[in-house]
Structure formats: structure tokens, C-alpha cells
Amino acid sequence: RATMKSLRFISAEALVSNAELARKSLGSVAHNLFPLLFKASYLLEQGEVIHSLVENWPFVDFNVGKLLGTTVDYQEDLSHRTCSLCLESCLTGLRDYVLNRSSPYLKRLKVVDLTGIKDVEVQVCDCKKTMGRWARTQLLSKLCLELLVYLQQRQSDPGISGISIDVRIDLFVTERNYELVTQALLKKCSCPLKICCVAFRSDNLALQKFFYVIKLVDASLLRKLEVVHNVRLEMEHLEMLFSSTHFPLLRSLTLPARTFNVGRFTATDEGMLANIGEKMGEMTQLAELSISFSVLTGRIQKLLSPLKTPLKMLDVSNCSLNHADMAYLANSFHANHLEALDLSGHNIPDLYPSIFFKLLSHSSPVLKSLTLEDCNIQDTHVNMLIVSLSPCQKLEEFRFLGNPLSSQALKHLFTFLCELPMLKNVEFPVPKDCYPIGVTYPIDDASLCRFDHQKYESVAEELNLILLQANREDVKTSTPLFGSYDAAVQETKNELGAYLINSFKETLEKFTSSLNETS
User: Fold this and answer.
1) What protein family is recorded (predicted)?
2) 467 lies in which domain range?
């Protein structure tokens, strides 16, 4: 359905659609119309006009998320359009704002905020070319270094020397852009554009380089820290990080797989875990924690009990939690505040069904997202699951891929899901009866796609018909076989793939070498 536009917005579109005319007219346009023209230009992908608007921006702040968000003149939110043409025009326009030789007193800009840009799977912009978080990090760093080269060439330019603009951004650093980003951060003091990192993501980076770049980032400003996949951060490194760096505003923390492994704990490790818990307790803003694929059997309480504020998001998928861990979660003050919970990889029906029910009943007034992938939920458990989910009337997302459920059980479950008023998104498994007889769960990657696709499509149609008949066509359903979409992984998949191939090659060479030595 088309979003209504005001006459002002329609007029703005008419002006910016003629790029040459719009650029010539900017000098006589009232300043309060710049935000309107910016959104209209972004919608029409008028890169030249966007560049000119930013180059001549008349205000103290330039907040991309707010400018593209819902406005009186045009309510559609465009902040999820990571259009490469538009975003590159924004950033190069910002560089040229600094270089523009207009009188210094006209330059009021002090803060640029790029953090409101949302990376999504489906792009609706005409160019279809996106600029993700990694590419934005790369381009801003490059532009900062270009400005420094210009300043060195023209040292006595008074129009530039007095300019200082904080650029708030979510940085994404990997091996491939590490050198560029560290150079830009090292020379931040000399550059008119000051990179202010609000959220930091690191992947495919040597541990030494991670520690170096995190020192260059102002940790006192960090609200989100994601250390993922190919950063080999283990518990002793995490303790070192927390001991040497303070994160007073940190709200969200994601740690890579195998950060913790209690299977090989010593007395020293127990003390280390306690220290990490205490350091996390000092992070008074911490509300989101993801520690998936660590082995934390019997240690959740030691890690989480020092926290002084309740968690709103907790991902403990594949953490080998036992009954004591689940009991702690169900009875902790976190349970009453959890808006998002991921318990994937735990055999919930067999190990702790009553504790799971208690946990959900405590979190039900606020719970919006629940993920129960590979939890061995079978047909005989569906009624128990329905009873557990019934109080969760605010649930918006429910993901339960990888569970051995039949078509009939899924239909029964979907009939209930229609009753959850806020539900928007459901990720359901391929029915067990679509796979060959004798398939074992969890299904390995090689067998994951070997199912009767025609039968699956037929079942999926029946499930959507259940929603349709209940007037719930607002609920989106899908079966992403290899997990939900991750914009950051998608953007850097080629680099990560190359890293994995090299790692495999090195392992193979070491193995071959050791075989040769023994023969």
C-alpha cells in the first residue's frame, strides 16, 4: 500500500527530480526545507542532490536515521534503504562540506549520526546495490585519510582548521579493512571528521589486532560490542579485555563461540569466570548478552548473578545448560524482563520441561522473541509447548527450526499461533515426514536439503491457509534452512569463506606433515 505524501513532499520531489535545477536553487532555499529535500532526494536516489545538500548542510546536527525515518510529510521509514549511491553521496558530501570554501561562520555542523541506518535482507531501491556496515566503515575511514592528505598540502587554510565534527558510526572491522580503519583512528585528533564508534563488530581478525583496534576506539562511548566467528577470544583474553578497558555505556555484548569451556576448567579458571562476572556487573547499562556455543554447564549463575540490572535479551544457545542453570534463569530477576530469549540446542522437553514452563511464565508479560531451534521438540511435546506459549501474548517472533515435527503437529501448532495477537514472524522446520524414513536429528548439513520439496511446498501452503482463515495474513512464515539472514555475515561472506578455506588448508598441511614425520 502506497504511503501518503503531503503537498510539500510532492513539491520537494518535483524540485529534486531535476538535479541541475535543484543544486542551483539551494542557495535560495530556506534552511528548514533541507531535511524535506534530503528525504525526497533519498527516495528518488538523486545522488548529486544529496551530495549538494550535505555539502551545504545548515544545521548543527545531521542524523541520517531521523531524517529518513517517519516524518509528517512522508511517513514511510527509509532508514532500511542502505542504497550505495545515496550513502556514498552522503559521505562524500560530508567530506566536501569540510573542503567547501564558503565562509567559516556558515559552518555550524558539529555532529553527524550514521547509526540509525538499518541493514536488511530485501532492498527496494532501484539501484539494488547496498552499502553495508563494513563498506560504510571502509568509506568513512578512506575519506578521513583523504582529508588529512589535503590538510597537509594546504596547511594554512583557515576555513578548515577550525572545523571539528563528531561522526557517530557502527564500525565493522575485519582483516581486509583493518589497516585503513586503524590509520583513520590513529590520526583522529588531526582530522576535522572525528570517528566516534558507538557500536563495534569484529570478525576474521587476529586477536592481537583486535586488542589494538579496541584500544583506539573510545570504549567510554561504546554501546554495543560484537566479537564473532573468527576472532579467537577465549576466557583469559576476555578477562584481560575487561580488566584493561572500561565500558560504562555498554548495553549489548556478543562473544564468539567457545569463549567459555567449563569442560576443562581448573581452579584458576573458576576465579577467572567469577572476575568476568564481576566486571560485567560493573556495566550498569548491560541489557543484551549473547554467549552462544560456549560450554557453560552449571556456571550460568556465577556469570550472571553479579549483574545489577536485568537482561532484556539473552542468547545461551548451544551452551550445554543443565537443570541448575535453567532453574537459576527461571528464578532470577532477569526472567521478568526478557524480551528476547534463545535456548536453541537444548533438549528442553526431556531435561527441564517444568522449569522451561516457569521461565516462560515469568517472562511472558514482556517476551517478544523466542528461539527454540534444535531442541528435540517432537509431536508428543506440542501440547506442552502450546501451554508454555499461551501466556506469551506479546510474542512477535517465534523460531523453531530443526525440530522433528510432523506436518500434522505443525498444523496443530499453527492453529494455536493464530491466537497470539502480536505475532509477526514464524520460522518453522521442514516437516519430518518430508525427509526420508530414518533421518536422525539434528540433521547434518549434507542431508538438510534432501527432502521432498513438493510435499514441503504443499504443507507450507496448508500452514499459510490456516493463518489466512484466521485473518492472520500479517504473519510472515519461512524455513531458512541455514539460519536467519545476517546482514554482516552476508556482506563479508567472501572474506570469511576465503579465511575458512585457508584454515582448512593449513590444518591439512599440518596433518600431512605430521604423518610424514611418523612414517
Assistant:
1) Belongs to the PRAME family. LRRC14 subfamily.
2) 234-484
